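hey can u run this one w/ zinc ion bound, need the structure tokens asap thx
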Amino acid sequence: MNWTAPFDVFNPEGKTAIVIVCDHASNALPGEVGCLGVAEGDMQRHIAWDIGAAPIARHLARIFDAPAVLSGTSRLVIDCNRKLHDPSLIPSMSDGIIIPANEGLSPGQRQKRIDAYFNPYHAACRQVITSRCRKGERPLFLSVHSMTDHMDGTHRPWEISLSSNEDRRATAPVLAALSEVPGLVVGDNQPYDMDPTQDYSTPEHALSRGLDYLQVEFRQDLVAEAKGQERYAHIFAEAVKRSGILTP
Ligand SMILES: [Zn+2]
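ok here u go:
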């Protein structure tokens, strides 16, 4: 994927009170970082982006008629869901792969990446949410991710997982609706919870404003191809609709 911009806003005029974000939508590398010293094959893996997450975010934007803000930069350049002081913001190692170009960056070089990629993406998220709040909306914040199917030699059974902290206003009803889907294996804070000390996007854009949120992970082997992306987007969207959280 060629790098074009730090973010993309899809369906900006969407009418539903939902704002979708996709922090790890892209594996694109801006020209100035070169290849980061990472092999091309590794740039296609989950360490560089959330496989399938961007098409799912766009499907959800179409299904709900909502805007979606997608990051345009690989998380190996900067991880848009990490706090600025977090060592994994600009990782020098990810799932056993060394990222040579990220080792020993000066504070100035780190700040350049924050200013060029992280800040514009989050400013776009903030702008979309703020403009809706000004109209009196209380949009649902929907953060779309995908997760690898194997971690540390263990297979992950969950097809769709929701990550939350103690604020489960939206999460609990949607989990209940997902549990009604025959045969679907659903994760509740597995493999990850939503940790306000680690995650950036949901605390920054939803918790800080008291907005309801959903943070969802789709298992990447199921959504790597177009058919699976569409299928799982629909399974999830139907559950959100059935949950009743969208009815005021
Ligand atoms: Zn992610």
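The longest helix spans residues 107-134. anyway lmk if its weird
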